[in-house]
């Protein structure tokens, strides 16, 4: 007798379950996505012990008749693919027909469903049909999963604690709610409501319901298109950052996805607007022709492949960068912690105008600082070549410097309040923009050194630098080999600060060596500008004269982005008169 045989359907389903069902949130994902595909307007998820004991999903979708309900538990049974060509036009969440049979093979499932005409009650345990009958004619589906992995103990022991499983489920529903703001989601655990959205179809309101006011009123709306993609959503101002990437929410054709290239475009757009290791809150919705999207590359369908990724990268990067660039404002030192309940039909206008209302009218005097927001709209009007007006708020302020605190923070005032300026961050921004302007300039001016600078390297470093010596000469350095593993610098570009020549040269050579395998001219220039700007700026705890303070402020106003240093830290923070009166209890509201 031959050794090869066809495995049983139940065994095949258990193997498939190992890919589809990893944890409680995997089951919630598959069941809720089925509810979404059934055109549900209201989806309720009840968990017991974070899903470890029970998962119950109730929807008001189209439901199923009795024949479809039983067939749904058959392997590869689906209503979403009929012909081979349908695989290239997928516009539903599920399509493989693996989820329900996989779940039923490793758990106990009770399904109640009705299309409004007929109904079905199905009870399956470990892939075996226990009971089949009719039930009430409530249109929609009610499915309960218990005893997860009861017959696969090796998988059971890898389930996490109740808190962890509950967190994973909440995080999933938050993302699905952002993908589908028109659907009302309710999530409970042990009878307590954990998450609830209104299904208002207002994305900003859904952001408010999930993240709260402190984040929702710091979000910036964007919208743009090219020949293949439409993008829309909200990004946070640089003052609202998280310590992980979890709040970068990306959706392609309303599918929750995780894609390295899309995340790279978002992070690159925030480059110099945020510190290393911090990540923005982003809701990015991408609509594309289904033929450009391959969702059939991973069992969870969360990773995808996109055609024309370079075009999409450029669209995301440019749109987000322009949105940030045109909406920079001085952050307030205090946040308003009290807010009334916001009605559905006015939330967008209220939230988007809150920052504007808190800003006092500009006052003109001796120092002419400009920074302002667009008075016509709270979000940028995105065109193919947007004309961006920036810095109006800062440049419209009159700041009178009155001192220096701890040798670090410049104190300035006007009739609107008090401002603290970080002297190191401010000069770092000034130097960064000066270096970037020089590095972008195609005309290179070089000055000769009276005493050449010699840089001795290890053999490996010397070989790398020798292969990339053109990088230095293109920037305006005059360099030649000088003995064993040594480079002699005879001249340098004029933008190198006087007195900082040797330190600058060594920093630039270090960067050339570090970037040997991933040399990107744009990023390389930015790294040079950031590194030199930091090293060549006034340090903290360094007392400077009032004349130097005034000169620093006058140079800051000329910056393209005077609000944060190239590492993303703020350069200036405002205490309004109202903030001060609240702090000292002169006002109590």
Structural features, described:
An 8-stranded mixed sheet has the order 5-4-3-6-2-1-7-8. It has a 5-stranded mixed sheet with strand order 9-10-15-12-13. It has a 4-stranded antiparallel sheet with strand order 20-21-22-26. Helix 13 (423-440) packs antiparallel against helix 17 (521-535) and helix 13 packs across helix 18 (546-556). The protein starts with 8 loop residues before the first helix and ends in a 6-residue tail after the last helix. The chain is of the alpha+beta class and 589 residues long. It contains 19 helices and 26 strands.
Which features does this protein show?
eight-stranded mixed β-sheet; alpha+beta; five-stranded mixed β-sheet; 26 strands
The average pLDDT score comes to 81
Cα-to-Cα separation, first versus last residue: 86 Å
Spatial order of the strands forming the largest sheet: 5-4-3-6-2-1-7-8
**How does the helix and strand content classify structurally?**
alpha+beta
Tell me roughly what share of residues is in helical segments: 25-40%
What is the percentage of strand-forming residues? 15-25%
Low-confidence stretches: 14-18, 79-84, 86-90, 336-389
Q: Layout of helices and strands, plus pairs?
A:
Elements: H1 9-20, H2 24-37, E1 42-48, E2 54-59, H3 66-71, H4 99-105, E3 108-114, E4 119-125, E5 128-133, E6 140-146, H5 153-156, H6 162-179, E7 184-189, E8 192-196, H7 203-211, H8 213-216, E9 219-225, E10 229-236, E11 241-242, E12 248-252, E13 255-257, H9 260-269, E14 279-280, E15 282-288, E16 293-294, E17 305-306, H10 309-325, H11 347-358, E18 369-372, H12 392-395, E19 396-397, E20 400-405, E21 409-414, E22 417-422, H13 423-440, E23 446-456, H14 459-467, H15 469-475, E24 478-481, E25 486-493, H16 501-514, H17 521-535, H18 546-556, E26 572-576, H19 577-583
Parallel strand pairs: 1-7, 12-15
Antiparallel strand pairs: 1-2, 2-6, 3-4, 3-6, 4-5, 7-8, 9-10, 10-15, 11-14, 12-13, 16-17, 20-21, 21-22, 22-26, 23-25, 24-25
Helix pairs in contact: 1-4, 2-6, 9-10, 13-17, 13-18, 16-17
């Amino acid at each position: 007798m031959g050794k090869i045989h066809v495995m049983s359907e139940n065994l095949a389903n258990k193997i498939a379950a190992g890919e589809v069902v990893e944890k409680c949130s995997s089951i919630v994902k598959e069941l809720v996505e089925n509810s979404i595909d059934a055109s549900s307007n209201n989806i309720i998820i009840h968990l017991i012990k974070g899903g470890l004991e029970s998962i119950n999903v109730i929807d008001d979708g189209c439901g199923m008749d009795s024949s479809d309900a039983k067939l749904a538990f058959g392997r590869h049974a689906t209503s979403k693919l009929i012909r081979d060509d349908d695989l290239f036009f997928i516009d539903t969440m599920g399509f493989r027909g693996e989820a329900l049979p996989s779940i039923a093979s490793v758990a106990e499932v009770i399904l109640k469903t009705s299309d409004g005409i007929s109904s079905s009650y199905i009870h399956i345990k470990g892939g075996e049909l226990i009971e089949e009958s009719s039930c009430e004619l409530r249109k929609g589906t009610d499915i309960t999963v218990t005893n997860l992995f009861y017959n696969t103990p090796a998988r059971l022991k890898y389930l996490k604690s109740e808190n962890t499983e509950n967190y994973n489920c909440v995080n999933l529903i938050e993302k699905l709610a952002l993908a589908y703001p028109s659907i009302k989601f309710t999530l409970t655990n042990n009878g307590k409501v954990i998450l609830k959205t209104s299904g208002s179809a207002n994305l900003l309101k859904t952001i408010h319901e999930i993240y709260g006011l402190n984040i929702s009123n710091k979000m910036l709306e964007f919208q743009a298109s090219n020949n293949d993609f439409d993008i829309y959503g909200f990004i946070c101002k640089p003052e609202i950052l998280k310590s992980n990437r979890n709040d970068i929410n990306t959706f392609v054709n309303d599918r929750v996805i995780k894609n390295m290239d899309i995340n790279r475009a978002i992070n690159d757009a925030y480059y110099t607007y945020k510190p290393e290791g911090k990540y923005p809150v982003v809701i990015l919705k991408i609509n594309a022709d289904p033929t450009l999207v391959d969702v059939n590359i991973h069992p969870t369908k969360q990773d995808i492949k996109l055609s024309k990724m370079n075009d999409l990268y450029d669209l995301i990067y440019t749109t987000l960068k322009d949105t940030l660039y045109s909406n920079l404002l001085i952050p307030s030192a205090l946040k308003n912690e009290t807010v009334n309940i916001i009605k559905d039909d006015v939330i967008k206008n209220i939230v988007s105008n809150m920052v504007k209302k808190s800003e006092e009218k500009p006052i003109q005097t001796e120092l002419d600082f400009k920074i302002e927001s667009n008075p016509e709209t709270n979000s940028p009007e995105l065109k193919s070549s947007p004309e961006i007006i920036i810095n109006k708020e800062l440049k419209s302020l009159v700041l009178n410097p009155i001192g220096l605190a701890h040798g670090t923070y410049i104190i300035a005032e006007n009739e609107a309040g008090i401002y603290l300026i970080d002297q190191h961050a401010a000069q770092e921004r000034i130097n960064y923009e000066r270096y970037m302007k020089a590095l972008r300039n195609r005309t290179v001016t070089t000055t000769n050194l009276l005493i050449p600078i010699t840089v001795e390297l290890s053999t490996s470093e010397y070989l790398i630098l020798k292969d990339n010596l053109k990088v230095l000469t293109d920037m305006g350095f005059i360099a030649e080999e000088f003995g064993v593993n040594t480079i002699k610098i005879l001249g340098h570009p004029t933008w190198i600060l006087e007195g900082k020549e040797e330190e600058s040269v060594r920093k630039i050579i270090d960067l050339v060596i570090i970037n040997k395998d991933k040399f990107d001219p744009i990023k390389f220039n930015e790294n040079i500008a950031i590194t030199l700007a930091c090293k060549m700026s006034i340090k903290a705890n360094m007392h400077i004269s009032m004349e130097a303070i005034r000169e620093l402020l006058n140079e800051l106003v000329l910056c393209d982005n005077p609000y944060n240093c190239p590492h993303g830290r703020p350069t200036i923070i405002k205490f309004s008169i109202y903030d001060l009166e609240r702090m000292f209890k002169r006002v109590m509201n």
